[in-house]
Amino acid sequence: MDMVHPYFPGCTLANKAKSFDTAARAAAAALGAPLDELPKWNCCGATFPLATDNLLNLVGPTRILARAKQHGDHVVTLCAACYNVLKRTDQFLAAEPEKRERINAFTEEPYNGGLRVLHLLEVLRDEVGFDALKSKVQKPLSGQRLAPYYGCLLLRPGAGVGLDDAENPTILEALLAALGATVMDFSHKTECCGSYLVVSEPRLARELSYSIIAAAQRRKATALVTSCPLCQFNLQSRQAEMEREHANFHPLPVVYFTELLAEALGIGDRRPGSGVRPAITPGAGESCPAASSVKQSAG
């Protein structure tokens, strides 16, 4: 029997990163781990507040946790930012019972812990299993030299998130290897892409993203693979400018791991001449929390 997972897609996957979401749902269903979207959900806030004195900043993610708890003992998400916010909020509420009670009184939807916040990568690793996944691959990603890019929010803070080793993660590498790709380890896989600096300091964010892409290209990667809509936006959307500013730069696709997963499972047909691009077309340059304001500010 399939294990159905309560699923929180979050704002960006519901609009600007639909291919990330669509591919995940199709692949999870094919693997016997279907994702069941929560019937009522709201924005998680996109960032975990550095200062937790204003408890209103935690109302949104607490409400998500409370509603997810009504549907089981865990919730699955995909966006690295949503995963980071929900997991850290749950830990904060467990450590601060007095503040938790104050938030519960405001939301009138009591949440008292006991919910596991999981990333789909954890489901693939711990429930499906990468060996079992390998046996289900219909179209191996042979010949693709893929550079797994984690960014910040999937891994940090290490003690709070715990998806993988914060300094030397391997979960994306193991997934891509199971799909038949050649995995390229590279020096910048956990470096910051510039994050929300793309709004206030777009040139700095562009240079940070350039350094990541250049490091992957030095390893002769044919694509970067990520799980963060904001990273995907920063890394993909300014490549034309990078090409003008750096003589030896050439564009590099930045795709979501779910798109490659769906392709390898045989969901959809690869387009002739598409190279590493997955059959489910990525939303290149469109994926970012609060995407409209970011795109306007970034020009």
Task: Identify low-pLDDT runs.
Answer: 269-277, 279-299
| Cα-based radius of gyration, to the nearest Å | 19 Å
Order of H and E elements: EHHEHEHHEHHEHHEHHEHHEHH
Which structural class matches the secondary elements?
Answer: alpha/beta
Number of domains: 2
Question: Would you give the CATH topology of the largest domain?
Answer: Rossmann fold
Q: Overall pLDDT, averaged?
A: 89
- The number of distinct β-strands equals 8
Give the helix level as a range of percent: 40-55%
Principal-axis shape: globular
Number of helices: 15
Report the biggest beta sheet as strand number plus sense, adding barrel if it closes. Answer: 4 strands, parallel
* CATH classification, class level of the largest domain: Alpha Beta
Strand order of the largest sheet: 2-1-3-4
Strand content: 5-15%
CATH architectural name of the largest domain: 3-Layer(aba) Sandwich
User: What is the straight-line distance between the termini?
Assistant: 49 Å
